Write the structure tokens for this entry.
Amino acid sequence: MDEKTKELIAIGASISGHCQSCLEYHIKEATNKGASTKEIHMAIAIGKAIDKGASKVMNNFITEKIGIEIEAQSHICCVKSPNCCLSDIK
């Protein structure tokens, strides 16, 4: 597998792994290895689709197994910071 393809895969993995620093690094490396903007956008879209699917499956599992209805959210973070999406939850 060529290096550009590896970096494009890493972009998708960074999205589904919720790693911003990884995403920045792999976008830069993919660009350096000759990836086009269109290829990078496609890798991002694939990573987002994988992440969205995994969230949907987990929400369904929680509803079925635990009996709690989960609202669909675009993202959930685990790091407490001033910009954290969970900062409003008391």
In short: The chain has three helices and no strands. The mean pLDDT is 83.
